Every structure is written in structure tokens, then in C-alpha cells.
């Protein structure tokens, strides 16, 4: 996208001269993004509170439309944990207007793609199709959200499917480690629960819990209908008024709703699942991070990029940029590591995920990782900040390739912050971040802060919590 915008700037700046006129000498100036008409996100709120947002690209042949809902596993109680994900599975199993077979056949005949996913704070249903088929896709999405039959036979079939999915997730060590990280960092709180829910809940969820979840959370004030691609905003608003006006306007303030909106408290703690049959130690360490709308959101991402990622299986393993990756590769301390900055509506997790089969040197690996965190508070160079900023901008721009990715970006930003920053605005924010900003962030968020630790596998040699916590204020 950056190269396309640069090309557009150049084309506009190099118009052919009129007869008898010569071009002035070229001067290098500051590049400014071009605000092309029709490419900004437009937003409209219907009378019932439903937000309609779209990014219209007049030359696009396809469109993605979807509904982003401000409700996920965080909107559940301990007893109903897993309901949101269960509902996602049942969404395509038939409505009062369409049987499951009719729904599948209709989508197949359109050549469209219909999908859904659940996260801790959001549930999303979306479809991608040719522009002419968008009205039918919006009708299908509205039907799924408002008229799902939730038949007992379908519930029992999907119960078995979800139980098998749960077994598969338990085999994915990264998923297991991060679920335990959330559970220990946000103990006894909604944000600490898993998305799938415990097996005993999956086995006992009934139609009553499912319908209650819909009534409590699938309301217009907590939904955004998003369109990206060749669908004009005015047409999307008309489709919303046709299909979504019967949605309840507001959510009842149930106990689960109030708990989901209560700020989560980060708790310094650790959880260790020792299993010596696993040949690696898989460890996540995190401090309390930043929310989606925190002023430090992009600074946290730059700091994360400075710490970087590493994978010794890659051909460029010795040259992956960050100082930590150089140390880890030189001393052969890890198979891989991944820094992360995960944000939620009111808090987040900022940290690192380490995987190593060098089981007698786990303490060295963790020591170097936490020492790098301490260094961010004391000595960050302009060169590594510029590298991190370039990587971050490229990652953000490359992730917006396609109408589905754009719709995801719009829906996520509006549902979490109420507005959407354009790629150009995000670039300018990142460009303004300096090494002083990074060190200030690290001083406030990393230096001498409590940590949450999740370790799974051959983790006998991981130091105790007090020793790890003491490393959070190391003078280098």
C-alpha cells in the first residue's frame, strides 16, 4: 500500500506540462498521503443504535460484509463459559427461514465465503462475495443473527464437534501456554477464561444458555455492520435498515454484562505444568500491557518489535535484527521466541513466548530476555527504533491486503475504540515515536513491574517466581 500511495503521489506531481511551458526543477520534499475521494471510512448510526461503517473502493469487484459484536467469552459467567463459541458453531445450522441445507446451497451457488470466529471480547460473522451478491449476503447474516433455530439435535451434534476441537487445541502447546497465561494473569475474572470453555461446560450447555446469551448480547448498540470493497455506503445503510431494524436497541445490564465491563486486574503470578514427555520448555512471560485505546498502544508495538522474534529453523536466523535474537543464536539458547503485545478494551499483556530444548540453560534464556526488557528502560538506540518502526509499518500495511482484512480492521477498531484510524494516520503516529518514548514506556510498564508466567513441558529448571520477579529491575 505504501508503494501504491507513493506511485499515486508521483503521478499527481508529474503531470505533463502545457505547450510552451517547461517543467520546474524537481525538488525532494516531505511525502504526504493523498486523501483520495471515496476511500475514507464512512459511518452511520441507525435509530436503533446499530453502527454501519464502510470503506468503498469503486474499482473493487468483490466485497466483504460482516457484523462485529462487542461480546465474546468475556461476556460469560464461569457457569456459561463456552456459550459464545458454541453459538458460533450453531450459526450455520439452520434458521426459521432457511434449513442448514438451504443455507449451504445458497452460499455455494453464490460462490461466496461465509465464516465466523469468537475471541475473548468479540464475535464476528462475515461473508465475502461479488458486489452484486452483497444484498443476499447481508440478508443471510441478518437471518443467522436473528433467527437461528438452535435445534436440540444440532446442539448435540455440535457438542461432539466442539469437544473434539477442544482436544485438538490441547495438543497445540502455544494455545495451551497462552490460555494458562491469561488464567494466571487475570485470575477469577472473565478475561482469564478460555474461549472454548471447560469440557464440563461444553457437555452441559443447553438451548436456554444459548438463547439467553443472544438476548443479552446480540443488541444493536453492541454491533457494527461493516462493508469493505465495491459496496457503496448508502447501499449498505439501506440494507441495514431493511434487515436489522428489528434488533433490540440496548443490552440488559445483567450480572454477566456488568462483570464483562468491569476493569480486569492484572495479578503477578505463575502457573507451571510440568510434563517431561514434552521435549521442550514452553514459557510465556508478560507484564500488564496496554488497552486498544491507550496512548501507549503503538509505542508498545514498537517496543515489542525491538525485542523482536527468532526462529533457528529459518535460513536468516543469525540475522533477524534484534539484539536478543543475536544473543540467543550465538549461545544456542532457544528454538524460537516471539515477543507479543496483546490488547483488550481495558488492559493487555506485553511479553515474550520462549521455546527451547536446551533444558539445562533455561535460566540463561530467561535471564537474557528479561535483561533485554531492562535495557529498554535505559539504552535504546535510534537505529533500532527506526528498524522496529519500519517493520511495524510494513506489518500493518501488509495485513490490510484484501477486503476481508480491511473489514476486520474497521470492525475491530470501531467496536473497541468507536472510530477507525486510517493507515496513513497510523503511519504518522508511528513515525513520531522516538527512542525517548520507548524508554519512557519501558520505565513505566516494564521496569520493576509484576509479571505473569506460564510454563508448560520440561520446565523443571525454570527459576522460582521470586527470582524471575527480581530480574525485572536489573542494572545492566
UniProtKB/TrEMBL annotation:
Reaction(s) catalysed by this chain's protein: Release of N-terminal transit peptides from precursor proteins imported into the mitochondrion, typically with Arg in position P2
Location relative to the cell: Mitochondrion
Record's keyword annotation contains Zinc: yes
Stated name of the protein: mitochondrial processing peptidase
Source organism superkingdom: Eukaryota
Family membership: Belongs to the peptidase M16 family.
GO molecular function: metalloendopeptidase activity
Function: Catalytic subunit of the essential mitochondrial processing protease (MPP), which cleaves the mitochondrial sequence off newly imported precursors proteins. Preferentially, cleaves after an arginine at position P2.
Gene coding for it: MAS1
First-tier enzyme category under EC: hydrolase
Cofactor: Zn(2+)
EC numbers on record: 3.4.24.64
Keyword flag Transcription regulation: no
Organism: Sporothrix epigloea
